[in-house]
Amino acid sequence: MTHPIAPHAARRPPVLEQTWAELLPELSRPASPVRTPDPRLIALNEEIAGELGLEPGWLRSDDGARFLTGESRADGTAPVAQVYAGHQWGEFRPILGDGRAALLGERRDRRGRLRDLHLKGIGPTSMSRVDGFATVGPMLREYLMGDAMHALGVPATRALAVVSTGAPRERDGQVLPGAVLARTAASHVRFGSFEYAGTHEDPGLLRRLADHVIARHYPQAARAEHPYRALLAEIVEAAAALTADWMRIGFVHGVLSTDNVLVSAETIDYGPCAFLDAYEPGARFSSIDEFGRYAYDRQPAIMRWNLERLAEAMAPLLDDDVATAERTAADITASFEDRYRAHRSLAFGRKLGVGQNVEQAEIEAVADAALGMLTEHAVDFTGFWRDLAAAAAGDERPVRSRFLGPVPELDAWLHRWRALGPDDELIRRANPVYIARNHILDEALAAAVDGDIAPFTQLLGLLRTPFIERAGDQHRRYTRPAPDGAPRHLTYCGT
């Protein structure tokens, strides 16, 4: 399961910048990663290591492993737990923050972009609500999901490594191997970061936070007549595009609270997430989402609701007059609907294999009619869209085989769709063969926890190139939904 520690010439841990901690100390608290008894590298993302100028050979050494758990650091590097607030399940929590994680620092990638290096599972912080540790299965899950989302063209935080700690942890009556995840992101500034700053009635703090986000993510806003209004509009646009991405791949985030949404519009936190098998608009998988607040079809509405909370926090920056600031905030967030609709239409146009010469209204009508059929007949979401490539090339058998018996509405739908002139190659580029099927991912993680990393490695390889179909029976199982009669998939927060 683990990689043996590689002998390597002694070297110092890489120097990291401390931008967040220096610019926004009010949103930072000191954190001390717990020393691990026997750190062992389980998974290393050499692509990410290369982008950050980190040597894979050294990361596999004993010193490298302890760097990845936050124990071995360059002089001047001081991990901090980030402080934020958030609305969870619609209720405002004035302080949440990193309860088992720390920002180790920032490092520039090969293109000069500043990237966070963030550790998860390091032990308790001053904001911990549980013991602060993590285990191998959930950390490998986040590693895999980040790479899978990236390969599907969805902005996402991505893991650099997973390290087992040698310290077992008890979870729900089981003793499981402990782990630390090292992940990267454009930043970890959350909607809840602004909510926290906004509650302190310190315009200077709110302004410094906004200036930091502009400089790091949306520099074009600095040139606008009203930079903070432009910043909010940029975040609305990015959030609309991200939400459309989730909907086009059948992804259910699962816990879309304001502390789990980044202003950079990268997907974060993969504990309760899941992918659709049979299309079900109201699908929810979280064990505690009793009323479907974060269900698949509610994600656009929830994202807008979250943006409204962000806008309320930012309102003092939008205008000196309170009433004008509130109206401006509401107007900017209201633009989410049209922005999301445009991104969704473009995404589903590609899934249908049609170009931008087709009217948006027609794309929406054809896509919605398809989704109606998938709902009525419980058809696999991912498989249906991929099968349209064969249908566009003249072979309708794969897509028809997903429906039981003759389906007159499918005949009519295919006729209407073919009239749009679909391109089979565009369909193949837009619709994956492989997604992280929930039952297969669970199998792979269970095997990894038991010491067999091979199923995880094979699944990860497929998900890194999800649009390329592999020949052979051994790969077909990865394209199939859970077997009939299988228990409904459940996911859990706090993983």
Description:
- It is globular, with a radius of gyration of 23 Å.
- About 50% of the residues are buried.
- Helix content is about 45%, strand content about 10%.
- With about 500 residues, it is of the alpha+beta class.
- The strands form five sheets. Strands 2, 6, 7, 8, 9 and 12 form a six-stranded antiparallel β-sheet that branches. Strands 1-3 form a two-stranded antiparallel sheet. The chain has a two-stranded antiparallel ribbon with strand order 4-5.
- Helix 8 runs parallel beside helix 10 (about 320-335) and helix 8 (about 225-250) runs parallel beside helix 11 (about 335-350).
- The model is unreliable at about 1-10 (pLDDT under 50).
- It has a domain at about 20-185.
- It is built from 19 helices and 14 strands.
Please compute the radius of gyration using only Cα atoms: 23 Å
Q: What's the pLDDT, averaged over the residues?
A: 94
Count of β-strands? 14
List low-confidence stretches. 1-10
**Largest sheet data:** 6 strands, antiparallel
Distance between the termini: 21 Å
Number of helices: 19
Write the layout of secondary structure elements.
Elements: H1 19-23, E1 28-30, E2 40-44, H2 46-51, H3 56-59, H4 62-68, E3 80-82, E4 86-88, E5 91-93, E6 101-108, E7 114-120, E8 134-135, H5 136-151, E9 158-164, E10 169-171, E11 174-176, E12 178-185, H6 191-198, H7 203-216, H8 227-249, E13 251-252, E14 274-275, H9 299-318, H10 322-334, H11 336-352, H12 360-377, H13 381-392, H14 397-400, H15 408-418, H16 424-430, H17 438-449, H18 454-464, H19 473-476
Antiparallel strand pairs: 1-3, 2-9, 4-5, 6-7, 7-12, 8-12, 9-12, 10-11, 13-14
